[in-house]
Design the sequence.
């Protein structure tokens, strides 16, 4: 069974700073890695995904994937109070009718004004 | 607009009672999922389905049944609810992409 570990458990950054979140996974055959954002009382919402080694940038978000070290990170540039939420790392396994996501426990990000 | 709708949003049940959580999606997705979310455990997969009439066991299926009577609807059934099943339950749908989640059902079993 795939294992997904996230760190830190919680992170507090001032407005305008860079937020950096980490995730490690156990299966090198894992396909895409997804980052979700979850606000209190809401369902998770997909933010960004990555499949290939290297980095991917979308707006203020950058994701880095290193398959050799089974590590992926999410960086939020110019963090805003509205970015305060739980961030979930999810790893996809299988495809077609067997497509499933395994989630980490999340990182609680708090951005202070 | 793509949507996943769960009902009820909140439910209080008694130990030993039967509980049915419902999920409807308008995205024409084949795959649908039921997760539960608990502090300290994150999101864990209970059951999933890859089309009408199919249900598959996820990572923590014990104590739960699922039903997929149509492409749009996927239900989670607790035949004999226990306090350990108190949790927030999320339904999701998606095919080979990031599943789209509903708003969740908060279930308390007393």
Sequence:
């Amino acid at each position: 069974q795939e294992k997904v570990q996230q760190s830190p458990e919680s992170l507090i950054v001032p407005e305008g700073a860079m937020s950096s979140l980490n995730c490690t996974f156990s299966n090198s055959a894992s396909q895409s890695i997804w980052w979700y954002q979850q606000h209190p009382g809401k369902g998770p919402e997909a933010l960004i995904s990555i499949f290939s080694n290297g980095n991917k940038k979308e707006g203020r978000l950058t994701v880095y994937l290193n398959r050799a070290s089974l590590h992926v990170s999410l960086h939020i540039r110019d963090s805003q109070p509205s970015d305060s939420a739980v961030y979930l790392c999810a790893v996809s396994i299988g495809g077609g009718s067997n497509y499933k996501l395994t989630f980490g426990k999340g990182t609680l990000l708090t951005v202070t004004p | 607009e793509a949507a996943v709708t769960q009902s009820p949003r909140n439910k209080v049940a008694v130990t030993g009672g039967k509980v049915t959580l419902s999920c409807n999606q308008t995205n024409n997705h084949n795959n649908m999922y039921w997760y539960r979310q608990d502090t300290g455990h994150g999101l864990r997969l209970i059951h999933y389905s890859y089309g009408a009439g199919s249900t598959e066991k996820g990572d923590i299926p014990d104590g739960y049944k699922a039903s997929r009577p149509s492409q749009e609807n996927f239900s989670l059934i607790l035949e004999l609810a226990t306090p350990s099943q108190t949790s927030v339950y999320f339904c999701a749908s998606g095919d080979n992409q990031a599943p789209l989640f509903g708003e969740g059902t908060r279930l308390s079993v007393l």
Summary: The first strand of chain B starts at residue 4 and ends at 7. Chain B has a mean pLDDT of 95. Residues 48 and 56 of chain B are 5 Å apart (CA to CA).
